[in-house]
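Running this now, will post back.
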Amino acid sequence: MAGLVKTEAVVLRSIRYGEADRILHLYTPHRGRLGAIAKGVRRARSRFGGRLEPFFRLHIELHEGRGELLTVTGAHTLDGHPRLRGDARALDAAARACDAVGRLFETAEPHPAVFNLLCRALALLDEQAGRAGPGGRSVPAKASALAFRLKLLLAAGLAPQLGGCASCGEREHLIGFSGAAGGVVCGACETGSFPFAQEAHRFMAAALAQPLNEAPDASGSALGQVERAISATLEHHAHVRLMPAVGPLG
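Update: finished.
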């Protein structure tokens, strides 16, 4: 039904369209992912200025007509994350976080917890970029990126089984991870799994339990196993493939 929609939103992606417009991918707390068109936004005198760029948190007004795309009629910046925008590593991490949300939660189904998690992740990236000195590391380690993805799995109802073997329930000798089974597996059920160290197991359990700003750390090999476990879970149960958690800048 046509009408005015007022909502908070994070701009996941902004795509040039036509001579002066942009297509926006937005994530909102109560309408999930939305597509919108911002008409004339690329003109020098656009009333929207630069506030419809990726990673902006906005209070946005949209007109909902009969088409798939809503039309942006107003926007007020709640957080533009200015420090993040001056740091290439932080920008890359923000893009990967927004891409993960857009791919895993691609419908209009509301997930307020996912919206809040994304806002927190972007705010942390902005804070850390602001604290970094010249040449300093300004983005979270791979551990933080994986902790964020684990919390997305939890919100999607895909959190891996970690308390016991996902196949038989055995609580001892958990030596592998199976995406098909949905979690860790014991020695008797390891067929089709890959090796999963205790350190990787501990990281996943802690990352799911602790706030995002208290993400645990782990060795590179353990984090590699965690990323593989997340990928296997998503590909098998959600048919979603994400970009690597960190890029070459990370």
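The chain has a mean pLDDT of 91. More later if anyone needs it.
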